[in-house]
Structures are given as structure tokens and as C-alpha cells.
């Protein structure tokens, strides 16, 4: 590794075939109940196992990231699908995107309100339309035309997110509001890479607000030649910093290894633009980088030999790791 590329970002984890994240945020040890800690580990493990089953069955990396993200969307603990945040109108608007690193095809949906698994709708957009990104009513109509079951908004109700909305509405509440997102990156036996991201956005966001998660290049990017990336953090800043593509571009144009590229963007550039967050970034050889400027990044990974590791607390995911 050239000396110029040795920092920042710490060193990558090796031999990873699938990684998932459950959002950037601070989870100091002892600050959450044992029950919730367990729920995080269970959710991450279930997502990794879902992906592992697909990989073992010979599925593609695209199938793997979709399966893993669906699992996280179904889990009430994460801000995506079932556990989505409330917007300022006390409703839910969900965003998701998926990208195939083999041919750079991609699909995304934004502001969907009645779809339990936006990641699968994003994949349908990729495979069954001529478009990359569908939003709002058009995305809902597309879902119905393709037989995606309609779900009423109460499906997305969780007490925790409701309490977070009420707290955010208090006049003395800080301006920055809780977010969270889920994502997955994978490489399969053919060396094909994929990335997927899904979110309920930010608590108390204006109706119609769209963050980075459904925007290819900002929240999600995958290219077999360099990296698969899924980001989490204040979407406005990840959009302005074109974060996911910037990691890929650094690798493509300078030959930087994944840990250096992801570290540069997530630990230097994005904080320089005024926000904290994190990313999971996997290179074609299975090197995983999980940098975050937020105190923690809930994440986990599966290695080639079947080992599963899940990390919830900020001291398990040092910022440079
Ligand atoms: N990036 C997400 C958004 O802005 C939120 C998050 O990851 O915390 O919608």
C-alpha cells in the first residue's frame, strides 16, 4: 500500500462477502436497555443470515443485498420500512435505492407511503421500467401495477419513533433530528458487487423532503471495478458531498484502497460540509471499511468462511475502523 494512502480510515476488515448497517448514531455503552441491544444484534444477524442463505443458494450480490435490507426493513428497531421515522405531518415517507456493480444499473424510490419493502420496489424500478428514480404518487402507482401489496400507514407505527417526533416538536428541541438508515453491500462468487440503502428519513422532516438514500451516487453506489457503498447520516450533506460516488471516484482515479477512500470522504470531507455520519464500503477483494464521524455506526458483516460479527456500541466501531 503506498504511504500516501495509509491514512485516514484505519485498516479494512478482510474476507468480507456481505456487510450491513443499521444507521449512524451514538449508542454509548449502557445507554440502551439490554432488550434493545439484543434487538439490534438480532436484527443485524437476521439480515446477515438472510443474505448468507441467498449466497449459499448461488444468488447474486443483488439478491443478497435486497434480502438483507428487506430483513432490516421488517425489523421495528431500524429506521426503514416497519420502524420508519415520522415526518412533520406525523406520516411516513420512505426512500430506497439499489445498484448493480456489474453494469451500473440502478433503481430507486422516494417518498413512498404505502409500501412495506421499498428496497424491492427500487429493484422493480431498475428491472421493470426505463427509469432510475420514481417518487411519490407515481412510485405508488408503479407499485400497484406490479402487484406490490398496499399497506396502510399504521403498519409503520412504533412507539419509539412517535416519542421521538413529540420530542422533536418541542420548541427547545435541537435542530438536528434523529435519523438512521439501513444498508447492505455484497460481493458474490462471480465478483459482482451490489449496494442497497433504505430509510424512513429524518424525524420531523418536512413532508416531501428527500435525503441521500434514494439518490445514486449520494447514499448508494456500486461498481465492480472499485467499491460498493451504502451511507448513513444527514442526507442533505451527503447529497451535497455526493458521498458514495466520491469514495468510488477516489479509488478509480487515484488507486486509493477502500479504507483510505472511505475514510477521506466520511472523516474529512463530509464533516467539513457540516454533518456527521458513516458508511460501509466493500471492495471487490472483500476488504470492508466502516468509517464514521458519528460516535457509532451500528453494523455487521459476514466473512467468506461464514463468520458473522455484529457491532452495536460506539466502542466496538472506533471511528477509524
Ligand atoms: N441519510 C438519511 C436521510 O437523510 C438519514 C440517516 O442515515 O440517518 O434520509
Sheet bearing the most strands, described?
8 strands, mixed
CATH architecture of the domain at 16-80 and 98-104 and 178-316: 4-Layer Sandwich
Please report the first level of CATH classification, the CATH class of the domain at 16-80 and 98-104 and 178-316: Alpha Beta
Sheet-strand content, in percent, reads 15-25%
Q: Ions, cofactors, ligands: which are bound? A: aspartic acid
**Average pLDDT for all residues:** 92
Class by alpha and beta content: alpha+beta
> Alpha-carbon distance between the termini?
17 Å
- Adjacency order of strands in the biggest sheet: 4-3-2-6-5-1-11-12
Structural commentary:
The longest helix is centred in the N-terminal third of the chain and has 23 residues. The protein is α+β, with helices and mostly antiparallel strands and 321 residues long. α1 packs antiparallel against α2 and α2 packs antiparallel against α3. β9 and β10 form a beta hairpin. The strands form 2 sheets. An 8-stranded mixed sheet has the order 4-3-2-6-5-1-11-12. A 4-stranded antiparallel sheet has the order 7-8-9-10. The protein is globular, with a radius of gyration of 18 Å. It has a domain of 211 residues: 4-Layer Sandwich (Glutamine Phosphoribosylpyrophosphate, subunit 1, domain 1). It starts with 15 loop residues before the first strand and ends in a 10-residue tail after the last strand. Bound molecules: aspartic acid (ASP). The site of aspartic acid has 15 residues, from β1 and β8.
Amino acid at each position: 500500500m503506498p504511504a500516501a494512502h495509509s491514512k485516514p480510515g484505519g485498516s479494512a476488515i478482510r474476507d468480507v462477502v456481505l456487510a450491513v448497517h443499521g444507521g449512524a448514531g451514538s449508542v454509548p455503552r449502557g445507554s440502551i436497555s439490554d432488550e434493545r441491544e439484543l434487538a439490534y444484534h438480532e436484527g443485524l444477524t437476521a439480515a446477515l443470515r438472510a443474505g448468507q442463505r441467498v449466497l449459499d443458494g448461488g444468488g447474486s450480490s443483488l439478491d443478497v443485498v435486497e434480502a438483507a435490507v428487506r430483513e432490516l426493513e421488517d425489523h421495528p428497531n431500524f429506521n426503514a420500512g416497519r420502524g420508519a421515522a415520522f415526518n412533520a405531518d406525523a406520516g411516513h415517507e420512505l426512500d430506497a435505492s439499489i445498484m448493480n456493480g456489474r453494469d451500473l444499473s440502478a433503481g430507486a424510490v422516494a417518498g413512498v407511503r404505502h409500501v412495506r419493502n421499498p428496497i424491492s420496489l427500487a429493484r422493480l424500478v431498475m428491472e421493470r421500467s426505463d427509469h432510475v428514480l420514481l417518487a411519490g404518487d407515481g412510485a405508488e402507482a408503479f407499485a400497484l401495477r406490479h402487484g406490490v401489496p398496499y399497506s396502510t400507514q399504521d403498519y409503520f407505527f412504533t412507539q419509539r419513533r412517535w416519542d421521538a417526533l413529540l420530542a422533536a416538536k418541542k420548541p427547545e428541541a435541537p435542530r438536528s433530528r434523529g435519523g438512521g438508515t439501513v444498508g447492505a453491500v455484497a460481493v458474490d462468487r462471480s465478483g459482482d458487487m451490489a449496494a442497497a440503502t433504505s430509510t424512513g428519513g429524518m424525524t420531523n422532516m418536512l413532508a416531501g423532503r428527500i435525503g441521500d438514500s434514494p439518490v445514486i451516487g449520494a447514499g448508494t453506489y456500486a461498481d465492480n471495478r472499485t467499491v460498493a457503498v451504502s451511507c448513513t447520516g444527514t442526507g442533505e450533506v451527503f447529497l451535497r458531498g455526493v458521498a458514495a460516488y466520491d469514495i468510488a471516484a477516489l479509488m478509480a482515479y487515484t488507486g486509493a484502497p477502500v479504507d483510505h477512500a472511505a475514510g477521506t470522504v466520511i472523516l474529512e470531507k463530509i464533516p467539513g460540509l457540516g454533518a456527521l455520519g458513516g458508511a460501509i464500503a466493500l471492495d471487490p477483494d472483500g476488504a470492508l471499511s466502516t468509517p464514521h464521524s458519528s460516535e457509532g455506526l451500528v453494523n455487521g458483516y459476514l466473512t467468506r468462511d461464514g463468520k458473522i460479527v455484529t457491532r452495536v456500541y460506539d466502542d466496538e466501531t472506533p471511528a477509524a475502523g
